[in-house]
Each structure stands twice: as structure tokens, then as C-alpha cells.
# Entry
Amino acid sequence: MATTSYFQLHRCSPIPLSLSSRCCCPCRPSPSKTLVLTRPRAKLGHLDLLFDGNRRALGLGRNGASASRRLIAVAARAEPEQLGEDNAHQEVHKGHKLSMNEDAVSEHQQKASQLKKRIFFGLGIGLSVGIVVLAGGWVFTAAVAAAVFVGAREYFELVRSHGITAGMTPPPRYVSRVCSVICALMPLVTLYRGQIDVSVTSAAFFVAMALLLQRGNPRFAQLSSTMFGLFYCGYLPCFWVKLRCGLAAPALNTSFGSAWPILFGGQAHWTVGLVATLISFSSIIAADTCAFLGGKAFGRTPLTTVSPKKTWEGTIVGLGGCIATSVLLSRIFCWPKSLLSAIAFGFLNFFGSVFGDLTESMIKRDAGVKDSGSLIPGHGGILDRVDSYMFTGALAYSFVKTFLPLYGV
# Structure
């Protein structure tokens, strides 16, 4: 009768075998005797072997050592997960550390690539905006209208996002599209008529009528979000057109005017509106850049919960950069002539940019998104780039028009 061989693994290291006793099993019908080997737990590690078989299967004698080695190899292959627990834990730990290092390197490379994109497209946008501002007239107005149309579309998409619609009813899509077109037409009307008040009031009336006469149950949330869209995306940007194209008083003391080519308008091209717009744009750029760098270097105290990444330290550095830029450019352009007026203009530009940025951050936070869009690689959407300019145009125009005697000339 065939006998059975088996070995049982309790631990992780094999041990040599020793013959201790011989007995016959009376329950087996075969007359052949069965050899039973039991081994003491001689320590070769953490592995206990138990073998039961006939004499031929044992293979003792001169080749006993090689048989034992083969047996140990078989046992090691039979239960690999039981062997080398410490080494396995070390390998797993090394794998985790390697994975973490690879993730850190990948994240660093991704941030570096994103920073390069931001710088590249930021310089391209800055150069394009500078050319448009210098051109003025229909070129400037058409660029503002295009930006307003895209920004209005992004705004109404934010209003329709899940984070906002969970607590309100968004306006219908056809109303959103009509409002986007109306917002884009407002800068053109401002350039042609000089005033926008009647146009905005008429547009708000027709939009309100469309919402109230829609099918279903009109909601106040629809009306309020749509009216704010008309004001935020359409009415406020029109003040940049009024500032750049409406204030046509010549900046007589500006040295750039005397050397400006006749083909591009000559000295008359350099108006108070052009100089004020250049100083305002440059001050906002300086404020954003200095606030970002100052926050990275010194930022410790959060400014507000609306935008957790903004800090008081970065804000103070941004304020200093904005005022310094305003004063420096006022000396270069010889406008405004008063140093106190230049400092006040810098303060006004800074606070307009900060609260415009926070307003858009509040909308995005309620919408549950990081960026308003993905139009500009590395920068997000149009609203992410022009949020600092939304309120600043109205403040700058009011300051120059109302508070500066003779427009600061």
C-alpha cells in the first residue's frame, strides 16, 4: 500500500531532520512496515518540518544531506509568503518611500511646467493688452467687448454649477445667452453714446420681463443672479471704455507725446485717459505680482476665509508694490502732478483689485470650482484674469473725473 508524505510549515526557516523512533501501524492491512520519523525542533530559523513515509522515500544515507536540502527548497517554494517577514516589510517600506519620492518629483515637475505656462502666457497677454490700450478707440472697445462676452458666459456657467444650483434655481439658458450678448454690446454702446445708464436700465427691464413671463414658477434667485450678471459682467467693464476713450483731455506734460509718431496720432494721442489707464493697469499687475511673491515668502496670517491662500503679509506687500508703481509711473508720465494724488490713485487701484478678486473667489467657492474656465493655459478662464479689473475701472474713472482738479494735468 502506498504511503503518504507530508510536511507542515509553522515558521519561516527549515531545520535538519533526525530519526528518533520506529513503530508499526497495526491499522494498515499491508504487511510492509512503515517508518515514522519525528524530528525535534532543531533550529534553523522559524520552520518546523514533519515527514511521514516509507524508507525508500526518505532517502537517508550518503545522499541524506542533499535530500534534506531539496526538501528545504520544496518547503520554501511551498509557502513563500511565510518566509522572510522582516525582509518583506522592509521591501514594502522601501516601495512606499520610492512611490512617495516619485510622486514628489512628478508634482514638482508639474508645478514647474505650470509656472512656465503661466509666465509664457502671462507675458503674451500683457504685451497684447499693452498694444490694445495704446491703440484705443474701436480696437480697445472691441477687445473689451470680446472679453466681456466670454466672461459673461463663464459667469452664467458658474451660476448653473451644482454648488450654486443646490440652493437656488438658475436662470434659463436662453436668458443667460441673451444676457451675455447684452453685456458684450454695452461697451460698444458706451463708446458710441458716451453713457450707459439708459441702456443698462432698458436691458435689465427686458430681462426681468423675460424671467417673469417664463413657463413654470419664476424664482427670485433667477432674477437676482441675472441682474448681478448684467451689473458685474456688463456695466462695470464699460467704465474702462469711459476712462480710456472718454477722458480725451491731452496729457500736456507727458514727454512721450512729443516723440509719438504722427501716423499713430501724434502728441494728441497721449490723453489723460490713456495715461490713467496705463498707470491703473500697471498698478494692478504690480499689486497681484507683489502680493503673490510676498505671500509665498512671508505669508502666515490668512486674510479671509473667502480665499484661504491670501494672507495679510502678501496683501501688505501688494499694497506697497501698487503704490510704488503708481508713484513711479506718475513721475515718468508727469501725471498726476501731485504726489499725494498719485499715492491716492495707487490706494484706489489696490483696493479695487483686491475686492474684485475676492468677489470672484466667493462666486467660485459657492460654485465649488477652482477656476472659472480653462480658456488660458495656466491661468484658468477670463474671469480669473480680469477679476481684479472689474471694480477698479469704475473707481479710477470716478477718481479722475470727480476728485482730480483739471483731471490732474
About this structure: Residues 85-135 form the longest helix (51 residues). Residues 1-69, 71-76, 78-83 have pLDDT under 50 and may be disordered. The longest strand covers residues 307-311.
